Amino acid sequence: MLSLGAAGVTSAAPFGKTTNRSKQKAAAEAERAGLQQKLSSLKKDISKTENAKDEAADTLAESEKAISDANRALRDLQQEQGDTNVKLKQLSAEHDRLAATVEQQKQQLAKLLRDQYVAGNEDRIKLLLSGDNPNRINRDLQMLAYVSQAQARLLESLRANLKAVEVNQEEAQNAKDELEEIAQEQLQQKARLEQEKGRRAALLSTLSKKLVAQRKEAGSLEKDEQRMAGLVDKLGKLIAEQAAAAAAEKRRQEEVAAARAKAAAEARALAKARAAAEAERKRLAANQNKSGTIKPAQPTQPTQPAPNPADAIDSDEPPKVAAIKPAPVEPAAPPARAADIALAPAAPAGAFAALKGQLRPPVSGKIVNKFGAKRGDGPSWKGVFIRTGEGADVHAVAGGRVVFADWLRGFGNLIIVDHGGQYMSIYGNNQSLLKRAGDIVKAGDAIASAGNSGGNEESGLYFELRHQGAAFDPAGWVKF
What we know:
Helix Hairpins; 3 domains; flat; Dup_hybrid_motif; Cell_wall_metabolism_enzyme; M23ase_b-sheet_dom; coiled coil; Peptidoglycan DD-metalloendopeptidase family protein
């Protein structure tokens, strides 16, 4: 199984440098590793129940996944390139502004020094020894102080701006390095994309007759239906488990925080009592010193508890206060890893149901197969097939979280979005998957590009809606 991350050889940063982009990409891939492992295990579990291992579409799987990964990588790189260019323009404008400010400050400083030189560069000692009017001397000294303060502020501001220029130049250079890194990756991905497209075309030509025959087999269609139902059921269970785990983790964190707050409050109360007892002891000791009847404090027996500070108020002896140790505080538990809660619903229950009849179509095109229509001698359609051009953007019909984004036999490059409340939308036969499992999407976000992966004859999108694992007619929900 290919990685859920961008496929292809990742180029090193130019000139051996490690850019901020490289570090961020490495961190993102590390966070995605746990989720990828879960989904890989899920796919293997589904594959164990299948008998047929020689379907023609499976031969296309590796090539179609590689095309999807390369297209997604190119799209991501284009977005990164645009963002980096905007950042570079902002840095350039900031550099020009800082350079103008530095130049202005240098001129101001030069003028101050020139004026001071022209004025004779009189210092405070000369003024004090000049024998002039004291009022005038005092006024001149104050003026010199103001000038010195102004010079100091100007110098400090100049240093800060020079440092800002240096930081700006470093960031601009890093942005340029990132652009070069992106350009190198784009060349690699384009070459890989063309290579995989040629490979897929050759495979299709070889397998065309076998694909046509297998697509008409009722048994094959039933297995596709069972495969999808099994995947949705397993994803539903995984989502429920991780949602419960996330809720339990949240409760535990809240309990730990409450315990820490309670322990801190007890420690403050003990410290306050200790301070009060110490103050009372000092007061009694001071009174005894004044009366001249100082009584030595009796040693505290190890087995005796510390006396109550309140009892010492009526006693002649200073209170004996035992060392008060704050209650042990349980350290805060580390938060749950992102990969462990990546499939928890991103939308509240009921949010998707409220959108019934208002959803926009996932792609522009013509519906050629409707929900419930018979598929030859096989099962009826559990969704709709929308014919559209290859590469057309496929949009999420509502907000949610991507819970599956991979190749699946019978459906090609498949993406599933969980909308909360046990509602899911399913998008199959895509040329490319533009989102990865764990990504949060908003309504209208481009999540895939239409195609004919999985051995489909026509270019388009297979679309389903499911609730609690059961498919239902999208016509009453989507404004086709």
